[in-house]
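Usage

Read records sequentially. Each one opens with the input sequence:
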Amino acid sequence: QVQLVESGGGSVQAGGSLRLSCAVSGWSNCRAWVRHVPGKEREGVAYIFPGDDSTYYADSVKGRFTISQDNAKDTVYLQMNNLKPEDTAMYYCAVNRWARCYGLRSSDYQYWGQGTRVTVSS
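and closes with the structure output:
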């Protein structure tokens, strides 16, 4: 069984930074952060593949967000810099147990956390 617990959300002004954390218990492979604004489609933000620490980012966050994991690979982080009001969303940690990362679609992930809210004011 996989359990994911996110933390680190909050309210910041535009241009500020936040670091989200996701505690991962149980074996998993590809790890990602996905965000959701009510009334809109979920948007995959970034993923990291534990096998080689390779990463991939959505164009909307490239150069501002960084996904990483600790050496034990049981915590996944999302460092968010230069935040913009359009980054306001609920952020979810998501993982799969498949052989590799396939992408940033919601269907690419099997297990989800409860989410942590990020609010960016202008």
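Summary fields computed downstream for this record:
- The chain has a mean pLDDT of 96.
- The radius of gyration is 13 Å.
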